[in-house]
Amino acid sequence: MIQLRFLSGPDIDSLGIGPAEVINAVQGAVDAHGRGLTVFEPRTHLVPDNGGAGHFNVLRGHVGTLGEHGLSGVKVVGDFVDNYQYGLPSELALITVYDPTTGVPLAIMDATWITEARTGAMTAVGAKFLARPDSRILGHVGARGTAFSNVTMLDSLFPLDEIRVTSRRPESREAFAAQLRAATDTPVRAVDTAAEAFEGADILVEASRLQEPQPLLRTAAVKPGAFVVPYGTISAVELDLLDVMDKVVVDDWSESRSGRFGALRAHVDTGRLSEKTLHAQIGEIVTGRKPGREHPDERILYWHRGLSILDVAVAHLILTRAEAADTGTLLRYR
């Protein structure tokens, strides 16, 4: 008999996994990627005939450094911007993980929190190597699920004096600011526009939920020494943004070139971002093969699209903890 473990959202919540553990797991996956110990293919998109309501991303990956033989996984995550109207997260996800030596499925788990937490952790890992250590002001556009992990994980790493947040809907940004105030002692201010959020900021994160391209992150807002993270599905930046950057770093160049979505899709398609203009993949920096921030006044942009290996790494963390606590439901597979 073969059994697999099902882990619901509440099961995962009960494990009490903290931000530092997720950051460590994600950095471990990035390090493995930098050393050539991961396998994955660029995500694919399933776009149903649903009038533009949303689409699905399918991510597949393997991390060879997890456990005795590594761990393989497949995640399907929906991207439905208007789900707030139904009281649902915009990104609902499910992941299955497998023994790579036999193909035996090991677990099925809610990956909604995984998607949020690994995204915030990837922003944080990039910031550890690319942002100024004395960064004081964080400007964040977007209040979707990944936003909370973005802000709180960055707040855990830097001596922030102020966090500014905004989003399209006033009720959304006010609720997000209140959620953050309950989680941090750093002053949090909800502002009306992206321009207000980004003005004079040391760390600028653009995580908007646009349906059509719109330049929310203006090139002129990026001051010397700034660390910029644009990763909305639809572009919210100007085409000349890369012209002022001293370094551009991505999570994986093959992933950056794939698909029809992404914050810098137009920059890749027009050749403004290419293998020649790219400074590094983040794994090359984490492993020490290429430098991260070298000068306080460098403007550095970091574009991460969400690698499947991060989902696998956090799923491994969850599964290991769940097995030790005997959490979840064992299901007969065959």
TrEMBL record:
<dbReference type="GO" id="GO:0005737">
    <property type="term" value="C:cytoplasm"/>
</dbReference>
<dbReference type="InterPro" id="IPR003462">
    <property type="entry name" value="ODC_Mu_crystall"/>
</dbReference>
<dbReference type="Pfam" id="PF02423">
    <property type="entry name" value="OCD_Mu_crystall"/>
</dbReference>
<dbReference type="InterPro" id="IPR023401">
    <property type="entry name" value="ODC_N"/>
</dbReference>
<protein>
    <submittedName>
        <fullName>Ornithine cyclodeaminase</fullName>
    </submittedName>
</protein>
<dbReference type="InterPro" id="IPR036291">
    <property type="entry name" value="NAD(P)-bd_dom_sf"/>
</dbReference>
